[in-house]
Amino acid sequence: MARGIFHIDLDAFFVSVEQVVNPRLKGKPVIVGGDPERRGVVASASYEARPFGIHAGMPLSKARRLCPQAIFIQANFSRYREAADKFMEILADFSPCIEPLGLDEAYLDVTGCEEPYGSLRQMALAIKDRIRRELRLTASVGIATCKVVAKIASDLCKPDGLLEVAPGKERHFLNPLPVARLPGVGKKTEQVLKGMGITTVGELASLPLNIVEKHFGKFGVVIHRYANGIDDRRVEAPGESKSISQQTTFAQDTLARHFLEANLRHLCQQVSAELRYQDKQARCVTLRLRYADFKTITRQVTLKEASNVSQVIFAAARQLLSEALVQRGKPIRLIGIRVSRLSGKERQLHMFDSEREKLEHLDKAIDQIRKKYGPASIKAGKDISTLNWHPGR
Question: What is the pTM (predicted TM-score) of this model?
Fold first, then answer.
């Protein structure tokens, strides 16, 4: 019996959620990411904005130059998480075998679950209908016998589409597609393949395996199998988080310490909030820096006791940053934070622990305010949105 694998992807998720909250945004070029006057990147763009060349990860300043009439909105991750949780609840009503991929997409193994609906296609239509009625969002669905083909199919039918690749037709479906459509084939791999005369998935699939392996090693074996429509990976529920991380890339390399610390504080607030959401605490804090010459370093410290308090994690990260700036005073293009060695929220209480408890209560209060009024409703005194950008200062 052939497997039935769905890849379900909510269309322009962040923007679509904002359009549900404010219907006047529908049909307009909308960009979620923040104020284009300040440093930041595009988190999501509406389909009306994309013809201007706007895509996720683009600097907001460039997005504004390309589409000056766009409406820019601050991201509201608590709102998106709430919608994502409801999305996953809908999927769970159709199959218990779900593999989430971020907030807005998931694989679903529906093998043998389609009988009440008559067919896989009718089942997918029922899922799309539930999402539309309950979330007022649209989803694109790819149907295939394996994950890689289902993923490519959903990408090709966006927005609000449904594309089914019948068993045995995987090669026929994949052959004419550009080789860059294969997951894992980035610009560098694509350029190497073009140098070999390979531009389509079918051409890659027809190459002898030993030639692909010679050029790309084990990765070559994987993409060769994908090109042939072969993917035996199971749809698996994610394991328990071993770490939580956030990072940001600057539009301009900088050594401005106040700007670096403000960004670092913001990232620490994000990972701390995620720790609290998961009822976890972290024992290890890791700082990641990438310099203008693309050299990347990591520095880490072990806390005296596990914590999910924003100020505790930021204090540790700031110390690591200070030491790194002394050791290598070169402009920085990326800064990131990771917390690991996670544990449950239980901890041993100590005498004279009132200061920590005050910080915990403060974080919980801030979480509630941001959940109700949005992430921009309350900020630390030196949050990044309060700072003017002065390169190199």
Answer: 0.67
How many Å apart are CA 148 and CA 238, to the nearest integer? 18
| Residue 105 among the catalytic residues | yes
Catalytic position from the list 18, 48, 99, 105:
105
Assess contact for 110 and 120: CB atoms under 8 A: yes
Residue 80 in tokens:
């998106």
Rounded distance, CA 371 to CA 205, Å?
49
Name the residue ranges covered by the structural domains of the chain.
5-11+78-170, 14-77, 174-227, 243-386
Instruction: Look up the CATH superfamily of 5-11+78-170.
Output: Reverse transcriptase/Diguanylate cyclase domain (3.30.70.270)
Return the CA Rg of the chain: 23
**Domain 14-77: CATH architecture, name and number where available:** 3-Layer(aba) Sandwich (3.40)
Pick the CATH number of 174-227 from 3.90.1300.10, 1.20.120.140, 1.10.150.20, 2.50.20.10: 1.10.150.20
Distances 25 to 76, 160, 215 between C-alpha atoms, Å = 16, 18, 48
Given the candidates 3.40.50.2300, 3.40.920.10, 3.30.70.260, 3.30.1490.100, the CATH classification of the domain at 243-386 is 3.30.1490.100
Q: 224-265: per-residue pLDDT in tens? A: 999 999 999 999 887 767 889 998 888 788 999 999 999 999
For the stretch 187-220, pLDDT in tens is: 889 999 999 999 999 999 999 999 999 989 999 9
What's the CA gap between 243 and 280, in Å, rounded?
Answer: 10
Query: What's the CA angle centered on 156, arms 105 and 100, to 5 degrees?
Result: 10
Mean pLDDT for the chain?
Answer: 87
* Element counts in the chain: helices (H) and strands (E): 13, 12
Q: Which of 239, 237, 165 is nearest to 201 (CA)?
A: 165
Each residue's pLDDT tens digit, 349-358: 444 455 555 5
H/E/C letters for each residue in 28-92?
CCEEECCCCCCCCECCEECCCCHHHCCCCCCEHHHHHHHCCCCEEECCCHHHHHHHHHHHHHHHH
